[in-house]
Amino acid sequence: MNENEKKVPSVVIRRLPRYYRYLGELMKQGTTRISSNALSQKMNVTASQIRQDFNYFGGFGQQGYGYNVEILYKEIGDILGLNDGDTMIILGAGNLGRALANHDTFEKRGFRLVGIFDNDRRIIGSSINGIKVMSIDELEHFIAENRVDIAILTLPKAAVQSAAERLAAAGVKGLMNFSYTELKLPNDIAVSNVHLSDPLMFLSYEIKRKGN
Amino acid sequence: MNENEKKVPSVVIRRLPRYYRYLGELMKQGTTRISSNALSQKMNVTASQIRQDFNYFGGFGQQGYGYNVEILYKEIGDILGLNDGDTMIILGAGNLGRALANHDTFEKRGFRLVGIFDNDRRIIGSSINGIKVMSIDELEHFIAENRVDIAILTLPKAAVQSAAERLAAAGVKGLMNFSYTELKLPNDIAVSNVHLSDPLMFLSYEIKRKGN
Questions:
Q1: For all residues of chain A together, what is the average pLDDT?
Q2: Which residues contact A99 (CB under 8 A, 6 or more apart)?
Q3: B111 compared with B212, residue with greater pLDDT
Q4: What is the pTM of this model?
Q5: What's the ipTM?
Q6: Measured between alpha carbons, how far is residue A58 from residues A2, A4, A62, A165, B200 in Å?
Q7: Residue in B6, B29, B95, B107 to test binding to A, most A beta-carbons within 10 Å
Q8: Taking CB atoms and an 8 Å cut-off, how many pairs form between chains A and B?
Q9: What is the rounded distance in angstroms from the CA atom of residue B141 to the CA atom of residue B148?
């Protein structure tokens, strides 16, 4: 990592997964080269925004001639750290935890599920997508014995802060939090809060705006 | 709706649910008034960004004196159309469909689940969160008989485009699509694609940046 990368605004980083997905689609379709204008039309972002975003990382290729799709895909993947073999665990084996354990896009993006934890004795010991559900009491022991980079939290709201503190203390580096709670944690742990009702609220606005 | 609202950029609209959630939290904590500076610190957005966003809707109150939390919460809710009683159905009663059917935040935000559809005979007729799973063959008939504003799609990738076309033709106004497919649809239907791996990719970047 060089010094320049440190200054990339978070909104730009948040757009990188979207570029990455689009480029993956283009590769599948056999597209080898694309201009920022063509990419812009497909992604509904201005071409100048794309060039500005890419400039944070050195630009990725010549204007006019366009971008090499495969190289750009690989470079963005590297910037995102998708080739680092990040491992993850899921806390909470309810419907959402199960759905995420079976979500094959995570693996496609390079994330490997290594453990699932719950405190319900009726679930502990059962298997989800080939992974045995463990008691949440075993959390620290498991993390001490296995590399765990990311924890996905699908716990009840009341349980999530203390679980997050345990994960941070045990050395987990990133949390994906589905529990609609702002976590208070040391700065060295990265948190991404997922709010599934946000897209619904956006749709509600759009429906109203379109006057349906 | 006035003419000004039509020009609000989509990125601003995408931020409204976040303001709405924060204001809800503040209300719960008993905060009655907040300055854009204080809101800015809590939300990790610049105060000028907040003022700029709110100016699209007339500003919502005096600078210096701060915003009335309850009124602002209600106004943003109205802009988002959360008090319109939007109804929704879920297509796909797998783990993710089940999780979303049981996701009580949707109801808290004013969205009412009225139907669940699947094509698996073993599931059709069973109940999820008090709602009977119907055959996908009954889709058009159900929509003709019931108000359906939004459909949540948790279908296999191969099934989602044709289902979306049927929903659009039947008059559904918004789609929340979990299927990692860009849908090609008439412009009068609003679509929000949800990519659950995007927050993971963001975490991967953050972990790498922090040099853990």
A1: 91
A2: B94, B95, B96, B98, B99
A3: B111
A4: 0.90
A5: 0.91
A6: 11, 9, 11, 37, 24
A7: B95
A8: 193
A9: 12
Chain A residue numbers touching B103 (CB-CB < 8 A): 96, 196-197
Question: How far are the Cα atoms of A61, A111, A148, A157, B108 from residue A134, in angstroms, in the given order?
Answer: 48, 20, 15, 20, 32
pLDDT at residue A2 in the model: 47
Calculate how close chain B gets to A51, using CA atoms only, in Å. Answer: 18
CB spacing of A207 vs B149 below 8 angstroms: yes
In chain A, what residues touch B194 (CB-CB under 8 Å)? 196, 199
Nearest beta carbon to residue A82 from set B95, B103, B201: B201
The mean pLDDT of B54-79, rounded to a whole number, is: 86
Out of A104-108, A124-128, A199-203, B151-155, pick the least confident.
A104-108
Measure B67 CA to nearest chain A CA, in Å.
Answer: 22
CB A179 within 8 Å of CB A157? yes
Cα angle at A41 between A205 and B169, to 5 degrees?
Answer: 50
Closest residue in chain B to residue A211, using alpha carbons only:
B1
* Separation of alpha carbons A152 and A164, rounded Å: 10
Using 50, 70 and 90 to split pLDDT, how confident is the model at B37? confident
Name the residue with higher pLDDT: A163 or A4. A163
